[in-house]
Write a structure and sequence with these properties.
This protein is an alpha+beta fold and about 90 residues long. The chain has one domain. Helices cover about 35% and strands about 20% of the residues.
């Protein structure tokens, strides 16, 4: 069975909204979006472990000086995509 390759940055924009901006992250294989909705909606793409690790770091120190660290979260884009397809 052939699996479809996704452009996770495009999927993230569909899930998070078109104004969401990708800031950092590998972007190539990461299907987990670390979302920082502090000044706007920014996201970065990572593998699951890396996304969780970066989230914990941001929650400890903040990401932009004006944020509330508890608002950072990780989204599994593959799961979000699958749930949007289900009627």
């Amino acid at each position: 069975m052939k699996t479809k390759k996704h452009n996770w940055a495009k999927v993230a924009k569909r899930v998070l909204g078109t104004k969401a901006a990708q800031n950092i992250g590998d972007g190539s294989r990461g299907r987990f979006a670390l979302v920082t909705p502090c000044r706007g909606v920014d996201f970065s793409l990572w593998a699951r472990e890396a996304a969780e690790s970066h989230k914990h770091q941001l929650s400890a120190v903040g990401c932009c000086g004006g944020c509330w660290p508890k608002t950072h979260y990780v989204v599994d884009l593959a799961r979000s995509l699958a749930s949007r397809r289900t009627p």
